[in-house]
Amino acid sequence: MKGGNLAVRFFDQQVYPMLTNKNDIIKMLLSLIPLGGTDITNAVRAAVQDALDKPSLRDYKLVVITDGEDDNVDPTAFNKAKSVFRSVKVLLIGGENSVIEENVDTIKIQELTSESYPTRLRRFSLETIKW
Hints:
Blueprint: H1 22-31, H2 40-53, E1 61-66, H3 75-84, E2 87-93, H4 98-103, E3 105-109, H5 117-130
Parallel strand pairs: 1-2, 2-3
């Protein structure tokens, strides 16, 4: 992985501790098992709190990667995030969420397979840089 610094939090029913070591991030990505129960609002609020606690994170872009399956997304959490981070974007994979799509710049990917993953990831990386 080339480029700048990363700070990543994984979330499902809970928000996990922040990872900044790229090898740890890769290990976590490779071990993920989607179990549902995502609390997107809680995850965004945790990211905002991270940036409030550590002001250097305010120069970061917040990118939320989700399937969007959460019926209780609070748009005010995203509005607060927009006031704290350089930019806020959502990569919505295989799902829909009108609250997210109406309140945040969103890239939608309807299907992600092992064959399409490299191309989609490259395209997403390029689009994120433009954001």
